[in-house]
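We store sequence, tokenised fold; for instance:
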Amino acid sequence: MRFEKFKFVLAVVLLSVGIFLGTQIDKVFGSDNLLENLRKFNDVLTYTQRYYVDETDSQKLVESAIKGMLNELDPHSVYIPAKQMQTVEEEFKGNFEGIGIEFQIVNDTLTVVSPITGGPSEALGILSGDRIIKIDGESSIGITNDDVRKRLRGPSGTKVKVVILRTGVKEGIEYVITRDKIPLYSVDAHTMLDSKTGYVSISRFAEKTTDELLDALADLDKRGMKQLVLDLRNNAGGFLNQAFMISDLFIDGNKKLVYTRGRRSEFNEDYYASTESLYEKVPLIILINRGSASASEIVSGAVQDWDRGLIIGETSFGKGLVQRQFSLNDGSAVRLTISEYFTPSGRLIQRKYSDKKKYYEDLMEREETEGENLDHKSEQDSSRPTFTTNKGRKVYGGGGITPDYLVKNDKLTGYTTSLLRQNVFYLFALKYIDVNGKAIADKYGNNLKKFDSEFRFSQKDEKDFVEFAAEKGAKFDQTDFDQEKDYIFLRLKGQLARNYWKNEGWYTVLLKGDKQVTKALTLFDKAKEIAGLK
């Protein structure tokens, strides 16, 4: 048994190393002494297993060795254990199988944050704020997040019985839910910011992102969209082909959108615009920040290099490396950097990563001066290579995509940070809805616009919120509160709106206090001028 386990572990190691060798393994052996190093590793693992003072877990040792090996490479080459692979695949494929709810554990009780659009829970009428107290006849009080997933997820067509407590209903409500495929959307929300400005937020670039975006844009067209704000803030990337396809929606002709170069020629690819789109002449502004990376930077870089629109916000992350995922035979995987990508002008936007700790610290410590940056003097640096956009504006490589207008959202005070950390906004909104939910529903019905323009918290509500926050461990600070009072209650209002109108409600309310969005709305004339659309 032990010998079979050892053979399995060794096979994993050999396969991992084989990834680096590709199909030319016989040629590489001689030049790199790889076979000799494999034997060395085999010897060390064997000696450890046979002679170490305590019993060892060979699989853990091998996984640690793989992680150590990848740690010698770039920050984005990583090992993914088998137990994490399902979550990773669901995220990028865009679906999983289950009952379809977003949830939180509140005071040991499984609480529905929102039924997922298009899922079986929504179809049955399960509501935000419902408390699930039984699953298949067993109490779910005290349940953990992992147990929720184990008990509620399952193959399509299987059934699960739940009992729900709902505000205003004395008895528990029993539902028999037939599990199904649940869509995971990468377009978080789309809405109209005013009578002519559409807004779309994309959280990641997954398998169906382009299709989702097209659906959102078609709906905004019906609502009168004449110009677009595309929000890629905190979008860490995803599939390169989706970034290329989305860039193609906005850039015309046969223009180069992005290209990749690697050590091996089969990883060299050039992507050109090829499909005519309704949105090639729509005035465009893209929002980015330091959390925008990879595929987000591909789209932003293409738009900027071709002077197709304006980029507003903060300088992006600076990830110009392309990974490919290789599956291992135990269900785990290794994600390896195989090439670098370049924007149309030739920019490699990857930041230096020789010091990996500093790689992430630099991002958080970065300071930028707000203002117009159309000529990109803000990032001018003799050590960074210079490139030019289609119309001759200077841009720089080696440090992310720097916006044409630098606008920073205000940093949160310590008090507001504490409110978020203690989950006060969600918990108070839940309590508020328990008391006032029927009155809100009666007054506003399904009219988000009316709620957004008319709803206000009373002075008593504000006092109750502060007291509730203190009970939850958010120590009151008068100075911080005075500074961010408007934001605090705008966010709380957004939390209420999300309960009734999901993400569209949340974004409709919150975007009114967003400095970067507000600035974008003033710059469409300049966006048209840059793109030659006037």
